[in-house]
Amino acid sequence: MQSYLDFEKPVADLEAKIAELKSMAQSDQAVSIDEEVNRLSARADEALVEIYRKLTPWQKTQVARHPQRPHFSDYVRALITEWTPLAGDRKFGEDAALQAGFGRFNGTPVAVLGQEKGNSTETRLKHNFGMANPEGYRKAVRIMDMADRFSVPVISFVDTSGAYPGIGAEERGQAEAIARSTEKSLELGVPNIAIIIGEGGSGGAIAIATANRVLMLENAIYSVISPEAGASILFRDAAKAQDMATAQKITAQDLLGFGVIDAIIPEPAGGAHRHHATIMESTRAALGAFLKDFAGKSRLEAREHRREKFLAIGTSL
Fold first, then answer.
1. Which parts of the chain are beta strand (E)?
2. What pLDDT does residue 207 have?
3. Which of 105, 102, 192, 92 is nearest to 138 (CA)?
4. Exposed e or buried b per residue across 210-247, where buried means at least 16 C-beta atoms within 10 angstroms of its C-beta
5. Distance, CA of 222 to CA of 229 (rounded, Å)
6. What's the rounded Cα separation, in Å, for the pair 259 and 123?
7. Are 190 and 211 within 8 A, CB to CB?
8. CA distances to 79, 111, 142, 229 from 116, in Å
9. Nearest C-alpha neighbor of 289 from the set 312, 263, 307, 267
10. pLDDT tens-digit profile of 161-175?
11. pTM
C-alpha cells in the first residue's frame, strides 16, 4: 500500500478515486470506467510532477525519510552479486545497523558498506533504525582494511540520521570509532565511492562517506545535524524544523553548488520510493562510470585525488 506524505494529498485524493472506481467495476462488470480512470490517472501524474518540481528543503527531508524508500538491502539485492556479508568488529561484537561485506558489481569484486534502517517494526528495531554503535564503525574499518589489502574498490551507501547517541555507545568510544573510520576512508589506497541514498546525518554518515566520489540521490539530505535537533538548539523550538532545513542548505542541489558532493542521481517525479527499478538502474550507471574513471589509478593517485578533493571544499565560495 502506498504511503503518502502530507504535501502529496492532492495525489492521494485522485488515486483514492481511481481505486474506488476500479473496485466499483469489479462488483459491476457493466460499468465502464476506462475513460474516467485514464483521465484521473493523467491528472494524478501531472499533480505529482508539479509537486515534486518545487519541493522545499523540509519536504525533501520528508521524502528522504519515506519508509518505502529503497534501503541498503534493496541496493545490494539489485546491484551486487555473490554478496557475502561479514559480521563483528573483532573487539566487542556485531552491529546490525551498519552492514558490510564483499560481492561483485558487474563482475568486479567490491567491498560494500552501508546503514540499513529496516522496513518493518521488527527489522527497524533489529537494525536500530540505521543508527550504528561504535562496533559498527570498527567493523567498517575492518572491511576497508581487507579491501585495501586485496586492492578491492569500496562502495558505501549512506542512510542514517546519525550514529547512535546512547550511553553504551559513548562508553565504548563512539567518537573515536567514527574518527577511525573517517581516517581509514581517507587513507585507502583503493578508490571509494559514497552514495547518500536517504539521510546523511552528521559523523555517522561522514565515517563512511569520505570518498573519492560522493553522490546524492536528488531528494536525499546531508547535514551535520537534523533540522529538528538544529532548531531545538538554535531556536529553542523543534517546531521550527522547516525553517532550519532551509537555513542548513541540506539538499543535493545546495551541496553540489558548494562542492561538497560531486554529482546528483536524479529521481523521477514521485521520488525513489515510487520508482525502485529506475533508481537502481541510475545507480548502476553511476557506479559503473566511477569504476571506469578510476580503473588503473595507482594507490598514490587514489589517495591524492581524495586529499585534494576534500581540501578544496570551501575554498571557492
1. 80-85, 98-105, 108-115, 154-160, 192-201, 213-217, 221-223, 263-265
2. 96
3. 92
4. bbbbbbbbbbbbbbebbbbbbbbeeeeeeebbbbbbee
5. 14
6. 35
7. no
8. 16, 16, 18, 22
9. 263
10. 999 999 999 999 999
11. 0.91
Judge whether 97 and 116 are in contact, CB under 8 Å. Answer: yes
Q: Is 249 helix (H, G, I), strand (E, B) or coil?
A: coil
Comparing CA positions, the residue from 17, 9, 21, 19 lying closest to residue 48 is 9
Distances (CA, A) of 280 to 36, 79, 266, 272, 274: 33, 7, 11, 9, 12
In the block, which residue shows the cell 508539479?
A: 50
Look-up: residue for cell 492532492? Answer: 10
Residues 219-264: pLDDT tens digits? Answer: 999 999 989 988 999 988 888 999 999 999 999 999 999 999 999 9
All three cell numbers of 217, joined, read: 540521490
What is the grid cell recorded at 64? 528522504
Q: Which of 205, 198, 201 is nearest to 272 (CA)?
A: 198
Q: How far is CA 181 from the centre of its chain?
A: 18
Helices (H), 174-275: 174-187, 202-209, 227-234, 241-248, 252-258
